[in-house]
């Protein structure tokens, strides 16, 4: 069987940085280090860090006094920052710099008196963090129907920002609906969209042209992994989201000549290898990487964790 690997796939720079912050914090301070929310949405990553001494909590009230605390890559609301400060917790902030950029854009629009719309998924931790960072009401829209339902006059000075794990393609219909409805609308530069989300989605579309089945390696609660699976399906290719090789169902591959594999931004390459191993147990496998965009983006670590 021919296996094609999407390029790029898997870890983005924000995820690499977030994991490294927890690892370096463990080295520097020793375990336990407390992490608010899954550092990134991947069970394998979370379990590996747990084994090294990270303790994952959903609420800061679970963190003991003075314990080193890491905020996850998704970002947090100001109330969470304030609570950590009030309790004197030493905090390392692993919020992805691209998420922080969205927070800052939102604050800028608001300071200019604009009414803010956030395009994103209700309940996602990044969305909760962003809504909680901007000082004022934020209208969350998830689809074009929500745009039509916004209780605002058409000439309201408006601005929008977007959840980073939505690509240009995901948001374009909603942005068009906002543009059609409001006469004074501003939005961020299209180049500000997260490069990793866009690149992984473009790569899965390219993959879809070559294969009969797409396997997306990622967690069920990972928004960008789910989206990759949806894009595969939209391209007319049977697409499945799997955490690792143990979830591979041979029935999916019954009539497949070529299988494509990609991975969400929070899924490590070791899990892609695990899926390839599972395919090898079914039959002989030839692996090739589809030519795609090279990524060489790196985000700096917090100064206190940089050696030297
Ligand atoms: S997907 Fe984009 S915004 Fe999210 S952590 Fe990765 S680089 Fe940052």
Automatic annotation (TrEMBL):
<feature type="binding site">
    <location>
        <position position="41"/>
    </location>
    <ligand>
        <name>(2E)-4-hydroxy-3-methylbut-2-enyl diphosphate</name>
    </ligand>
</feature>
<protein>
    <recommendedName>
        <fullName>4-hydroxy-3-methylbut-2-enyl diphosphate reductase</fullName>
        <ecNumber>1.17.7.4</ecNumber>
    </recommendedName>
</protein>
<comment type="pathway">
    <text>Isoprenoid biosynthesis; isopentenyl diphosphate biosynthesis via DXP pathway; isopentenyl diphosphate from 1-deoxy-D-xylulose 5-phosphate: step 6/6.</text>
</comment>
<feature type="binding site">
    <location>
        <position position="222"/>
    </location>
    <ligand>
        <name>(2E)-4-hydroxy-3-methylbut-2-enyl diphosphate</name>
    </ligand>
</feature>
<dbReference type="GO" id="GO:0046872">
    <property type="term" value="F:metal ion binding"/>
</dbReference>
<feature type="binding site">
    <location>
        <position position="124"/>
    </location>
    <ligand>
        <name>(2E)-4-hydroxy-3-methylbut-2-enyl diphosphate</name>
    </ligand>
</feature>
<feature type="binding site">
    <location>
        <position position="74"/>
    </location>
    <ligand>
        <name>dimethylallyl diphosphate</name>
    </ligand>
</feature>
<comment type="pathway">
    <text>Isoprenoid biosynthesis; dimethylallyl diphosphate biosynthesis; dimethylallyl diphosphate from (2E)-4-hydroxy-3-methylbutenyl diphosphate: step 1/1.</text>
</comment>
<feature type="binding site">
    <location>
        <position position="41"/>
    </location>
    <ligand>
        <name>dimethylallyl diphosphate</name>
    </ligand>
</feature>
<dbReference type="GO" id="GO:0050992">
    <property type="term" value="P:dimethylallyl diphosphate biosynthetic process"/>
</dbReference>
<feature type="binding site">
    <location>
        <position position="12"/>
    </location>
    <ligand>
        <name>[4Fe-4S] cluster</name>
    </ligand>
</feature>
<dbReference type="GO" id="GO:0016114">
    <property type="term" value="P:terpenoid biosynthetic process"/>
</dbReference>
<feature type="binding site">
    <location>
        <position position="266"/>
    </location>
    <ligand>
        <name>dimethylallyl diphosphate</name>
    </ligand>
</feature>
<dbReference type="InterPro" id="IPR003451">
    <property type="entry name" value="LytB/IspH"/>
</dbReference>
<dbReference type="GO" id="GO:0019288">
    <property type="term" value="P:isopentenyl diphosphate biosynthetic process, methylerythritol 4-phosphate pathway"/>
</dbReference>
<feature type="binding site">
    <location>
        <position position="223"/>
    </location>
    <ligand>
        <name>dimethylallyl diphosphate</name>
    </ligand>
</feature>
<feature type="binding site">
    <location>
        <position position="194"/>
    </location>
    <ligand>
        <name>[4Fe-4S] cluster</name>
    </ligand>
</feature>
<feature type="binding site">
    <location>
        <position position="74"/>
    </location>
    <ligand>
        <name>isopentenyl diphosphate</name>
    </ligand>
</feature>
<feature type="binding site">
    <location>
        <position position="222"/>
    </location>
    <ligand>
        <name>dimethylallyl diphosphate</name>
    </ligand>
</feature>
<keyword id="KW-0560">Oxidoreductase</keyword>
<feature type="binding site">
    <location>
        <position position="124"/>
    </location>
    <ligand>
        <name>dimethylallyl diphosphate</name>
    </ligand>
</feature>
<keyword id="KW-0004">4Fe-4S</keyword>
<feature type="binding site">
    <location>
        <position position="96"/>
    </location>
    <ligand>
        <name>[4Fe-4S] cluster</name>
    </ligand>
</feature>
<feature type="binding site">
    <location>
        <position position="224"/>
    </location>
    <ligand>
        <name>(2E)-4-hydroxy-3-methylbut-2-enyl diphosphate</name>
    </ligand>
</feature>
<feature type="binding site">
    <location>
        <position position="266"/>
    </location>
    <ligand>
        <name>(2E)-4-hydroxy-3-methylbut-2-enyl diphosphate</name>
    </ligand>
</feature>
<feature type="binding site">
    <location>
        <position position="41"/>
    </location>
    <ligand>
        <name>isopentenyl diphosphate</name>
    </ligand>
</feature>
<feature type="binding site">
    <location>
        <position position="223"/>
    </location>
    <ligand>
        <name>(2E)-4-hydroxy-3-methylbut-2-enyl diphosphate</name>
    </ligand>
</feature>
<feature type="binding site">
    <location>
        <position position="224"/>
    </location>
    <ligand>
        <name>isopentenyl diphosphate</name>
    </ligand>
</feature>
<feature type="binding site">
    <location>
        <position position="74"/>
    </location>
    <ligand>
        <name>(2E)-4-hydroxy-3-methylbut-2-enyl diphosphate</name>
    </ligand>
</feature>
<feature type="active site" description="Proton donor">
    <location>
        <position position="126"/>
    </location>
</feature>
<keyword id="KW-0414">Isoprene biosynthesis</keyword>
<feature type="binding site">
    <location>
        <position position="124"/>
    </location>
    <ligand>
        <name>isopentenyl diphosphate</name>
    </ligand>
</feature>
<feature type="binding site">
    <location>
        <position position="222"/>
    </location>
    <ligand>
        <name>isopentenyl diphosphate</name>
    </ligand>
</feature>
<dbReference type="GO" id="GO:0051539">
    <property type="term" value="F:4 iron, 4 sulfur cluster binding"/>
</dbReference>
<dbReference type="GO" id="GO:0051745">
    <property type="term" value="F:4-hydroxy-3-methylbut-2-enyl diphosphate reductase activity"/>
</dbReference>
<keyword id="KW-0411">Iron-sulfur</keyword>
<feature type="binding site">
    <location>
        <position position="266"/>
    </location>
    <ligand>
        <name>isopentenyl diphosphate</name>
    </ligand>
</feature>
<keyword id="KW-0479">Metal-binding</keyword>
<feature type="binding site">
    <location>
        <position position="164"/>
    </location>
    <ligand>
        <name>(2E)-4-hydroxy-3-methylbut-2-enyl diphosphate</name>
    </ligand>
</feature>
<feature type="binding site">
    <location>
        <position position="223"/>
    </location>
    <ligand>
        <name>isopentenyl diphosphate</name>
    </ligand>
</feature>
<comment type="similarity">
    <text>Belongs to the IspH family.</text>
</comment>
<keyword id="KW-0408">Iron</keyword>
């Amino acid at each position: 069987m021919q296996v094609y690997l999407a390029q790029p796939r898997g870890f983005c720079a924000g995820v690499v940085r977030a994991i490294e912050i927890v690892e370096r914090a463990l080295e520097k301070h020793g375990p336990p280090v407390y992490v608010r929310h899954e550092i990134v949405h991947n069970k394998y990553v979370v379990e590996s860090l747990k084994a090294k001494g990270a303790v994952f909590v959903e609420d800061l009230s679970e963190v003991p006094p003075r314990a080193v605390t890491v905020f996850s890559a998704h970002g947090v609301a100001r109330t969470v920052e304030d609570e950590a400060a009030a309790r004197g917790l030493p905090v390392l902030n692993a919020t992805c710099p691209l998420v922080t950029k969205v927070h800052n854009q939102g604050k800028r629009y608001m300071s200019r008196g604009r009414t803010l719309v956030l395009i994103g998924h209700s309940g996602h931790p990044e969305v909760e963090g962003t809504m909680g960072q901007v000082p004022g009401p934020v209208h969350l829209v998830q689809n074009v129907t929500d745009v039509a339902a916004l209780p605002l006059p058409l000439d309201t000075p408006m601005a929008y920002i977007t959840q980073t794990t939505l690509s240009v393609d995901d948001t374009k219909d909603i942005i068009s609906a906002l543009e059609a409805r409001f006469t004074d609308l501003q939005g961020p530069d299209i180049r500000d969209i997260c490069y990793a989300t866009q690149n992984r989605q473009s790569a899965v579309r390219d993959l879809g042209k070559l294969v009969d089945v797409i396997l997306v390696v990622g967690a069920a609660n990972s928004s960008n992994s789910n989206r990759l699976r949806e894009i595969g399906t939209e391209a007319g290719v049977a697409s499945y989201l799997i955490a690792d090789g143990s979830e591979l169902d041979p029935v999916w591959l019954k009539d497949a000549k070529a299988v494509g594999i990609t991975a969400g931004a929070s899924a490590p390459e070791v899990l892609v290898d695990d899926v390839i191993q599972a395919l090898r147990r079914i039959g002989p496998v030839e692996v090739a990487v589809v030519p795609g965009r090279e990524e060489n983006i790196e985000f700096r670590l917090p100064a206190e964790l940089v050696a030297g």
